Amino acid sequence: MKDDIMNKLDSELAHAGEETQLSPQMLLLEQLRITPEKELPPMEFLFRLFGKLCFPRKELVAITGKAKSGKTFVTSMLMACCVTRKVLAFERHTDFTDIKPLRLLWYDTEQSDESTQDILKNRMLRMIGHTDHTDKMHDLWSTEESVKSVCDYFNVFNVRAVEWKQRRALLSEAVKRCKPDLVIVDGIRDLVNDINDGVLAQEVMEELMHLATTGNCCIVCVLHQNKSGEDRNLRGWIGTELMNKAFEVYACEKMMPQRIFKLEQTLTRKYDIEQTMYFEVGADGLPRECAVPVDGSADVSSATSKERLPQLNAEYIMHDNSMEGGWQFDVMRLFLDAMRGEEEVGGKELRERVMQLSGIVVPFKYNKLLDEALAQKIIERTMRDGRTIYRPAPF
Q1: What is the pLDDT of residue 149?
Q2: By percentage, how much of the chain surpasses pLDDT 70?
Q3: 368 membership: H or E segment, kind and range
Q4: Are residues 274 and 335 in the same domain?
């Protein structure tokens, strides 16, 4: 390949009447050239969320939220998914041709040694043990005699007591030594001594991007949001750099007084995930999916299925077959009203409008209506800049 590049450049330079001295920069620049014909490997994703591909290799992903908003619960689900097939709405992206677990590197900078070990033993491993027994991975990896085998794929380090410069060096060494598929850095704020040092923030982001690329892994960066109530921006200059470099950003929120946790995708460069995951912590200390909170006064975690039924807007119901488990909506009227005559509407905005108009509170019921609207060619879907856009379909 180098000979072809040199011949090509020599020919072009000779034609221009210039000397044919080839600099290292020119060689590198030619190697970095992107053309329509250049063969590139497809992106490889580690997981799915609500069926959508997410968490790709060679990229950075951000998980954010206020203090105690469920960030560690979400990363625990991802870590458990490295071994088991599915945890709540997260699912391993695998065809089971090779069912070896993913290799995990959990790099904890915030908690005590005891807290890190407690999450490993009493949350992650128990999530694996609670998996459906029809899961092939469960059969192989969740028995007592296989716990050691599982832990062989889990490389867990607590570096809270280490000085910040050494944390960066040790992280690089850990990626090289452990060869992980998934890296959880909880949190990246502790890789710098000043969260608002712009030069240092850029340096750390470049290090992490290099590690993700050379290590062929996905690096999940956990970082707090700003403390003010309405400000959901990531903290400090390092948060700004992470927003610029991340392939995806996910935001966690704790909803009170129900004590329900919420996870939603807020930014992506490829696959827009419109559904929001709601979960609560059961008496066993493990997360479980729950219904969307209807209002601030109802504790939906303890409500019966009948009490959880939404107050649907009768204007959009053509036929009530609730005794059979559903309602028939006037899908055309509902979605056209939600579009409000606009030429295009973002995916999340359309979902909020439809759910508000109809009274639907469970995301999967919205998705069913959305599929009907697309199938009936009431609306059409396209992608732009990593966002899902909907337009009224031409009649």
Answers
A1: 65
A2: 79
A3: helix 363-375
A4: no
